[in-house]
């Protein structure tokens, strides 16, 4: 069994035409990918800016809450000190009355 060689002849013009056609298709695909990437980048930048704005708003709100809590704590501290001073004065008055009954009349 001997194999006879098969000769296939293509013209160089046909081969170059097919290569150019494939290159054009690849170029279109690359262009579409670049356009899609640019759109995604623009969307991401918009989303990031929106998140930044939202976070800044939340940070400001939290800052206001913390300031409010700080003011309330200062007020509570003042009230606690006043109660302690009143308790100490009452205790002192009771001790004086207990040990020096003649001074209280």
Sheet/helix structural class: mainly alpha
Proportion of beta-strand residues: under 5%
What's the end-to-end separation, in Å? 143 Å
Average pLDDT confidence is: 88
Radius of gyration (CA) equals 44 Å
Number of strands: 0
The H-and-E topology, N to C, reads as: H
* Unreliably modeled segments: none
Helix content: over 70%
Overall shape? rod-shaped
Give a short account of the largest sheet: none
Number of helices: 1
Q: Secondary-structure map with pairings?
A:
Layout: H1 12-99
Explained architecture:
The radius of gyration is 44 Å and the shape is rod-shaped. The model has no long low-confidence stretch (mean pLDDT 88). The protein contains one helix and no strands. The protein starts with 11 loop residues before the first helix and ends in a 6-residue tail after the last helix. The chain has one helix spanning 12-99. It is mainly alpha-helical and 105 residues long.
Short description:
By secondary structure, this protein is an all-alpha fold.
Keywords:
single chain; 105 residues; mainly alpha
């Amino acid at each position: 069994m001997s194999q006879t060689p098969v000769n296939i002849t293509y013209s160089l013009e046909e081969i170059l035409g097919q290569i150019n056609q494939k290159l054009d298709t690849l170029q279109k695909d690359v262009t579409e990918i670049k356009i899609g990437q640019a759109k995604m980048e623009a969307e991401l930048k918009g989303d990031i800016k929106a998140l930044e704005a939202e976070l800044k708003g939340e940070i400001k709100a939290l800052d206001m809450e913390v300031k409010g809590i700080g003011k309330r704590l200062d007020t509570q501290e003042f009230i606690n000190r006043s109660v302690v001073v009143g308790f100490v004065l009452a205790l002192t008055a009771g001790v004086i009355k207990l040990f020096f009954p003649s001074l209280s009349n």
